[in-house]
Amino acid sequence: MTKTITLAQGNGGGENNDLIKKVFYKAFKNEILERSEDAAVIGKWAMTTDSFTVSPLFFAGADIGKLAVCGTCNDLAM
């Protein structure tokens, strides 16, 4: 494991999963995190985080704001 996070580790694929399991699961051991779900339900609250990168910010049929809202709603629904 390198000391620097690479683009490959940040792309959401296999290297990203390895980083999460080897670094974050180890540092923040808890059953909620180890479920590897897109959202966490803690009591009456549901929480998710995500990021979106798109260029241009506005494109046919949507924009980065709509993409962010739809992505967050999808994470919470799943």
Number of domains: 2
Query: Structural class, from secondary structure content?
Result: alpha+beta
Proportion of β residues? 5-15%
Biggest sheet character: 2 strands, antiparallel
Tally of separate helices: 2
What is Rg?
15 Å
Distance between the termini: 31 Å
> Can you count the beta strands?
4
Question: What's the mean pLDDT score?
Answer: 84
Low-confidence stretches: none
Query: What is the topology, as strand order, of the major beta sheet?
Result: 1-2
Shape: flat
How helical, in percent, are the residues?
25-40%
Give an account of the 3D structure.
The model has no long low-confidence stretch (mean pLDDT 84). The N and C termini lie far apart (31 Å). This protein has helices at residues 14-27, 64-77, and strands at residues 40-42, 45-47, 58-59, 62-63. The strands form two sheets. A two-stranded antiparallel ribbon has the order 1-2. A two-stranded antiparallel sheet has the order 3-4. The protein has 78 residues and is of the alpha+beta class. The protein folds into two domains: 1-36, no CATH class; 38-78, no CATH class.
